[in-house]
Specification:
By secondary structure, the protein is of the alpha/beta class. The protein folds into two domains: 145 residues, Urease, subunit C, domain 1 (Roll), CATH 2.30.40.10; 311 residues, TIM Barrel (Alpha-Beta Barrel), CATH 3.20.20. Helix content is 36%, strand content 21%. It has 15 helices and 20 strands. Strands 3-2-1-4 form a four-stranded mixed sheet. Strands 5-16-19-20 form a four-stranded antiparallel sheet, covered by helices on one side. It has a four-stranded parallel sheet with strand order 6-7-8-10. β19 and β20 form a beta hairpin. It starts with 12 loop residues before the first strand and ends with a strand. The N terminus is likely disordered. It binds xanthine. Xanthine binds next to α2.
């Protein structure tokens, strides 16, 4: 596996072959023998569905759309082989970069003891620069290798290493929201806690300023205001973070209603008399502090009441569904169909390291399985299809992180955030022909395209992710 760092001098590009992307929640569009032209800024300038996979024909139609100043020899052509397809990059709407070394390490814990036993000690240790560099370099490379072109990252409370994570995303060419984690209550140990609300805000501002310096246009990396979750933030800190969000218009990410003991704790720590909230629900607490808006990403949302889901829909806040973590640390089964039916926008989160896998494809697969458990619990309509989980992994995720105008599908005007997927093709002698001997997906040739995609969702992994681009730049290539 090799990850290519971002190239500085991007060329115009022509991609030719099969393209698959979500049209809507329950529909994938299959474009075969098509071509997509991407300009030097990484923007899709033209899509041709009529070229029958003929590069010359595609070039004749599409090159003029590049406008002035291009010449034929300068356009880089990438043709997907028979059976391969381009797919939009995955969007991980909730991942703790700082917890990556702990993937798979959670024993039999549940949220609150998991935080104390495994999570806070590791996160605190990343204040050591060399360790932070090692961990963050690895997590960015690893997620890119799984086709994650955009991630909403939690770092730690340490400003220097949070800034380093932003630097590394930019250098590797990964689109990212990077949040310095705010937490000032005794829920976390003294060695890993903000000294005061004022210090927490000052540190957050320092990280925001750094990210604004390294990527002023927020072309790739942007800051995200990150109250860890209500129990780790005091009332004055929650108020100050709400004010900061109003002042900066930045996105917000936090956790909500993941675990029943956590919900009871929120009720205890945030009585209505102290917050002025409309009621004593978890959602009303965020709302009372101006932290529930269309720019808010709420991870988990497992145990919401009817009224809370309605309030989330009303405010236009978004939900990051984290089926891997919700299963691993036994938080519960989020009712995604119920949220979608209420008009709540949902995406997928790996939630490393509550979740044991950094792969959004794995999150998609687990979203399908968890929805079947919800269905077996009595809600037959809860089952999510392959088309639906892939929508959540791409277009849904794009909306969750506020980038739906830029990424998530292959339309003119969007940026080329894409992955080239190759599945193992079984030959006459039973051997795999596609240089993919070690892959997990075997295609025999008689499957429909819908069946191939289903096999990818249920059996695929990073071995199928041959190339990955962000804003037109090749950021990962599997050798
Ligand atoms: O899954 C989770 N991971 C975390 O790090 C965390 N912190 C608060 N609540 C959390 N939930």
């Amino acid at each position: 596996m090799a990850t290519t760092t971002a190239q500085n001098n991007l060329k115009n590009q022509l991609f030719v072959g099969s393209f698959i992307h979500s049209k809507k929640l329950n529909q994938l569009e299959y474009l075969h023998g098509a071509s997509v032209c991407v300009d030097k800024n990484g923007k899709i300038v033209a899509v041709d569905t009529q070229c029958a996979g003929d590069v010359k024909k595609a070039a004749a139609t599409l090159y003029p759309t590049l406008g002035e100043g291009w010449s034929e020899g300068e356009v880089v052509v990438q043709v997907a082989k028979e059976g391969q397809f381009f797919f939009p990059g995955f969007i991980d709407t909730h991942i703790h970069a700082s917890q990556y070394p702990n993937v798979g390490i959670f024993g039999s814990s549940t949220l609150l003891d998991w935080l104390n036993t495994y999570t806070f000690p590791l996160e605190a240790s990343l204040a050591e620069p060399a360790k932070a560099r090692k961990v963050y370099t690895r997590v960015v490379r690893k997620t890119l290798s799984h086709g994650t072109t955009c991630a909403a990252y939690y770092a730690t409370k340490d400003v220097a290493s949070t800034n380093l994570l932003a630097d590394l995303c930019l250098a590797a060419g990964q689109r990212a929201l990077v949040g310095r984690v705010c937490m000032d209550t005794p829920l976390s140990p003294e060695y890993y806690r903000d000294e005061s609300p004022a210090q927490s805000i000052a540190a957050t501002r320092a990280s925001i300023a750094h990210i604004a310096r390294i990527d002023p246009a927020m072309a790739l990396v942007r800051p995200v205001i990150t109250p860890r979750f209500a129990p780790s933030c005091s009332i004055p800190l929650m108020q100050a973070l709400g004010a900061l969000a109003a002042e900066t218009d930045l996105p917000i990410q936090t956790h909500i209603s993941e675990n029943k003991n956590e919900i009871a704790l929120v009720r205890e720590l945030f009585p209505v008399a102290a917050t002025g909230a409309a009621d004593d629900s978890y959602t009303a607490v965020y709302d009372a502090f101006g932290l529930l808006s269309s720019r808010t990403i709420l991870a988990h949302a497992v145990h919401l009441s009817e009224a809370e889901a309605d309030l989330i829909a009303l405010r236009g806040a978004k939900v990051s569904h984290c089926p891997c973590s919700n299963s691993a640390i036994t938080s519960g089964a989020a009712r995604v169909r119920w949220l979608l039916d209420k008009g709540v926008c949902c995406g997928l989160g790996t939630d490393v390291s509550g979740g044991y896998s950094p792969s959004v494809l794995e999150a998609a697969r687990l979203a399908a399985l968890v929805s079947r458990h919800v269905a077996m619990g009595g809600d037959e309509a809860a089952k999510l299809t392959v088309e639906e989980v892939l929508f959540l992994a791409t277009r849904g995720g794009a909306e969750v992180v506020g980038l739906e105008d830029k990424v998530g599908g292959f339309e003119v005007g969007k940026e080329w955030d894409a992955q080239l997927i190759g599945l193992g093709s079984v030959g006459e002698d039973g051997a795999v022909e596609d240089g993919d001997e070690d892959g997990n997906v075997d295609v025999f040739g008689w499957e429909s395209w819908e069946e191939r995609v289903a096999k990818w969702v249920y059996n695929g992994d990073d071995r199928n992710t041959r190339k990955v681009w962000v804003r037109g730049r090749l950021v990962h290539e599997r050798k």
